[in-house]
Each structure stands twice: as structure tokens, then as C-alpha cells.
Design a protein that fits this description.
Keywords: G-protein coupled receptor, Membrane, Olfaction, Receptor, Sensory transduction, Transducer, Transmembrane, Transmembrane helix. This protein is mostly helical. The protein contains twelve helices and five strands.
Length: 321
């Protein structure tokens, strides 16, 4: 028997009552004294993320020498990182200064949809960048033919299409669930695992579909990245000079750093059964890939990249002139 907030039993026809009225997002902390400090910290992080990624996009588009496949994917990755953080952080900032912290059921599903769509597109763009490095290092004489503008555009469109279809399937599954007495999400946004914990429906079939389909969608770009770097390592080890090996590996260091940050935290959060879900640990891991990684990406790709440094200086000179 399912009980309502008034203690009276709800029949099956009323089990969606709390779905219609919405959810309460508990946020990162329920401590009132931490709300304003957290607001200041995440506002700064969000602004740094937006400004940093916008500068990367502008630098790439303003410098003709950066109009290459690698930087085409990087500019789209930067744009997707802005969208990725915008899906969750502004709502979290509003809730940190609000007493209600509410989100409607439809709003929750919309947030979930775009969060997954942007996150998955990020992973496919990282895979596309790995393929670009594979072709550049292992088949340099065929690079321009293989990584032509048409193929790069098709890779981008394929990344977006697969990601949005995955998100649509996941949201459709979530919309069929019933939510009863509890409607407090112990998270700062509508993520799959915290919302599934609230459902009074049998979620075993949904969990199996979610785990299987998520494994396929996320594992595909990850295995692509893994295969690409195994090929790169084999090719680089055949280079006779140490300087040549270092030069080849240095072109991949920024990408590998971002991949490790992104996939490390995602694997920890999503590839575990619901019974092993931990509120505090998952919040920290989720902040890593939803806020910290998008904020660090502009620094990772620009600090050790001479081409990006030159592009940023060129953009600065153009602004000042």
C-alpha cells in the first residue's frame, strides 16, 4: 500500500500525483550556513567555464591556422561543455538561494534529457578527437583525405543523433514510472539514479534497460578511444628517436587528461547497481564531470598547446585593437 503525505492510502490511479506536482532538489548540502558560500563558489566556477570555453571557440574561429579537424572537434566540445553545465548549474544556483528548491516533473524530465544528450555528445566528441589523433599519427599522409570536412561534419552529426536518441529512450522510460509518498531528490539535479530511488514502481526492468543501453552508448566511444590509443602507442614505439616519440605523445596529452577526468567519474557514478548508490560520494563524483571537468578543459587544451596560445594571443590583440 502506498501512503500519501496525509497518511491516507493512495490507489494506483493516483500514484502519479507527486509526478505532476514535481520534486524537491535537496542540493549539495541542507546546511543553511553553506548555501551562500556554495552559491559563490559555483557561480565563479560556472562563469569561468562559460568564459573559458567561449574564448576557446572564438580563438579557433578567428585563426585560420586552427581550422583543422582537431580544433573543429575541440570548438564543438567547448560549446557542448557550456550547454552541459548550463543544464544543471543555473538551476542549482537558484535553489541555493531559494527556500522551496522545487522542480516540476516535466522540468525534471527536460533537465534529464538535455543533461544526458550533452554528456553523451561530449563522450562521442572525445572519441572523434581520438580518431583524429590516430589518423594524424598512424596515417599522416592520408590525413587530409580521411579527415575531410564532410566526414568531420558527419561524425559531429552522428554524435548528436545517437546521444539524443539515447536521452529520448531514457526519458520515456522514466516518464512511465510512478512516484508516490517521497518526492525529495537527494541531488542537485534530476539524475537517473536519484530519481529511480524515489519510484514506487518495479524499477528492475528499467534498471536492466538503462544499464545495458547506457553501457552500449558510453562504452562505444570509450572502446573507440582505447583502440585508437593502443594503435597510437604501437606506432609511436616504432619511432627511432626519443624526440620523435615525445613529440607524437605530446599531441595527445591534453586529450588523454580530459578523457581520464571525464570517464573516471562517469564510470564511478553510473556503472554500479542501484543498491550501491551513495548520495555523498555520487554528488562529489558528479560535480567532477558536470562542473570541474568542463571548467578545466579550456586550461588543459590551452596551457600546453602552442597553437591555442597563439590563437588566444591573436584574439586578444584583435580585441584590443
Amino acid at each position: 500500500m502506498v501512503l500519501g503525505l496525509d497518511g491516507k492510502p493512495l490507489d494506483s490511479s493516483s500514484s502519479h500525483i507527486f509526478s505532476d506536482s514535481g520534486f524537491i532538489l535537496l542540493g549539495l548540502s541542507s546546511n543553511p550556513q553553506l548555501q551562500k558560500p556554495l552559491f559563490a563558489i559555483f557561480l565563479i566556477m560556472y562563469l569561468v567555464t562559460v568564459v573559458g570555453n567561449v574564448l576557446i571557440i572564438l580563438a579557433i574561429h578567428s585563426d585560420p591556422r586552427l581550422h583543422t579537424p582537431m580544433y573543429f572537434f575541440l570548438s564543438n566540445l567547448s560549446f557542448m561543455d557550456i550547454c552541459f553545465t548550463t543544464v544543471t548549474v543555473p538551476k542549482m544556483l537558484v535553489n541555493l538561494l531559494s527556500e522551496t528548491k522545487a522542480i516540476s516533473f516535466v522540468g525534471c524530465l527536460v533537465q534529464m534529457y538535455f543533461f544526458m544528450a550533452c554528456g553523451n555528445t561530449d563522450s562521442y566528441l572525445l572519441a572523434s578527437m581520438a580518431i583524429d589523433r590516430l589518423v594524424a599519427i598512424c596515417h599522416p599522409f592520408h590525413y587530409n583525405r580521411v579527415m575531410n570536412p564532410r566526414r568531420c561534419l558527419l561524425m559531429l552529426l552522428g554524435s548528436c543523433t545517437i546521444s539524443h536518441l539515447h536521452s529520448l529512450l531514457r526519458v520515456l522510460l522514466m516518464s512511465r514510472l510512478s512516484f508516490c509518498a517521497s518526492h525529495v531528490i537527494k541531488h542537485f539535479f534530476c539524475d537517473t539514479q536519484p530519481v529511480l530511488k524515489l519510484s514506487c514502481s518495479d524499477t528492475s526492468s528499467s534498471q536492466i534497460v538503462v544499464m545495458t543501453e547506457t553501457l552500449a552508448v558510453i562504452a562505444t566511444p570509450f572502446l573507440c578511444i582505447l583502440f585508437s590509443y593502443l594503435r597510437i602507442i604501437v606506432t609511436v614505439l616504432r619511432i627511432p628517436s626519443a624526440a620523435g616519440k615525445w613529440k607524437a605523445f605530446s599531441t595527445c596529452s591534453s586529450h588523454l587528461t580530459v578523457v581520464a577526468l571525464f570517464y573516471g567519474s562517469i564510470t564511478y557514478v553510473y556503472f554500479r547497481p542501484l543498491s550501491m548508490y551513495s548520495v555523498v560520494k555520487d554528488r562529489v563524483a558528479t560535480v567532477m564531470y558536470t562542473v570541474v571537468t568542463p571548467m578545466l578543459n579550456p586550461f588543459i587544451y590551452s596551457l600546453r598547446n602552442k597553437d591555442m596560445k597563439r590563437g588566444l594571443r591573436k584574439l586578444r590583440d584583435r580585441i584590443h585593437s
